[in-house]
Amino acid sequence: MAKKNKTIVINLSNIGKRYASPIKKQEYFYALKNISLKITKGDKIGLTGDNGAGKTTLLKIITGITKPTSGSVYTKGKIVSLINLEAGFDEELSGRENIIFNSMLHGLSRSEAKAKEKTIIRFAGIGKFINAPFYTYSSGMRFRLAFSIAMASKPNIILIDEIFLAGDIKFQIKTLKMITSLSQRDDTTLIISSHHPLILRKFCTKFVILKHGKIIKGTMQNILKLTKQWNNFFTDIPETKLEKKLSKNPFYQR
Q1: CATH code assigned to 1-77+195-236
Q2: N or C: at which end does the chain have fewer Cβ atoms within 10 angstroms?
Q3: What is the pTM of this model?
Q4: 3-state SS class at 238
Q5: C-alpha to C-alpha distances, 124 to 68, 112, 116, 147, 165, nearest whole angstrom
Q6: Strand residues in the chain grouped as ranges (E)
Q7: Strands 206-211 and 157-160
Q8: Using one digit for the tens of pLDDT, what is the confidence trace for 186-222?
Q9: What span, in angstroms and rounded, lies between the C-alpha atoms of 244 and 239?
Q10: pLDDT in tens, 146-159
């Protein structure tokens, strides 16, 4: 029996993004050039490339934060973007009040947001500060609340920038477990922009590499090369008995 074609949930056609040069008047530079990309429902895409390659710009175009200079963008489904998590928060409102306010920006009704309030507060784990004004929050607390609200909105498409590994180590692990759960769902499309090869290997099955605003074909071989470079940097750290025990698992090899 022939396999059914998967639903296309993101279709980028000849996307270009041009900015005015901050150095010379009447000159421009392209953050993205002729980007064409089709992503189907359930795809787990790892996006990588050098700093300034255009990764964050591409994610912002997909989510609608910024518009392309040329080309067309098609998306299908609810998108949650973990790029600028603090956007849409009112500094004067308490964390509790911002749950309702920000959840509605993610497409929930007031009653839906109220029903999820306890779950969001529990996951964020910021205790009594949930009733304090948002402007009093540390950067880690801001991230915890924003991430918790975003995940509670049950998105179909999730866009994650490197910044998602914020907060203390306990919350980072909590975040990674949540992303792991989402990456295992066939109905959830995931795009992760990261420089960390192990993050890409953990969550992604397809890869896109950007260079100077253009797509170059990404493969697991590319990611393995990055992994080797990463691991080689830490070869001077003495191996522990526990590491020797775990070394049979390829994920822990260094």
Answers
A1: 3.40.50.300
A2: N
A3: 0.81
A4: coil
A5: 34, 18, 12, 8, 14
A6: 8-20, 28-40, 44-49, 70-75, 79-82, 157-160, 189-193, 206-211, 214-218
A7: unpaired
A8: 899 999 998 888 888 888 989 999 988 998 877 777 7
A9: 7
A10: 889 988 888 899 99
